[in-house]
Give the backbone structure.
Amino acid sequence: MRATLSIIAILLLAACARPEPLDEQSAVHDPFARCSGDDRRACMAQVEAREIAGSGGRVQRRGMRLTFRLGNGETTALVNDTSDGGSAKRYVYAGYLPSIRHHVVEVRYYEGGSVLLLHEQTGATTDVHGFPAVAPGGRRVATASMDLIAGYTPNHIRVWRVTDTHLELEWGLDGGTRWGASDPVWHGPHVVTFTRHTLPSPSAGPSEVIRTSMRLDLRNGGLTVQSQDP
């Protein structure tokens, strides 16, 4: 009986130590996904408060100022512009991604918005436009964005290389005014799928958008993009 229990314990330890499979999916980090409608702003404030509380004091909100205590001992801040015009912007903290050592911040402009990634050691910021999906292993990040109707946000898919100090753009494809991208999901460290949203004509409306599942493969030093739909 004792020997049997020992074998079970060994098997359980082995299962716990087993590395994650390479085809494990890594999807978009968007803590505000459930915030919508008239209460979106209040919902986002609640999410931000929760994420700041979990930052261990590295992030603080004081009125209009969002302050970050960096790993190099310095601090940096993002300050809201509450003017009623084109320069207006509001920063909302969206959490920390330890695998890439970046904080995530949503930016709301007078019209439209974006997403910033801020390096926790250097304070370097990268405007990536869409919420990030981190590849297994943390060496790449995919972002997608679109605004086919109003055009406040660029329409594209991007892959960023994670360095020790910042992000570098590795690959990108722009859709112009005809198509945008959403929902990047990693399948291992080299393959990412996303949804392409296409307007069949310049005069088409939101109800006419065509959605296509796409696959991007970054293996073997090359790049392939193809549709997954039949």
Summary: The helical segments are 2-17, 40-53. Confidence is low (pLDDT under 50) at residues 1-23. DSSP finds two helices and 16 strands in the chain.
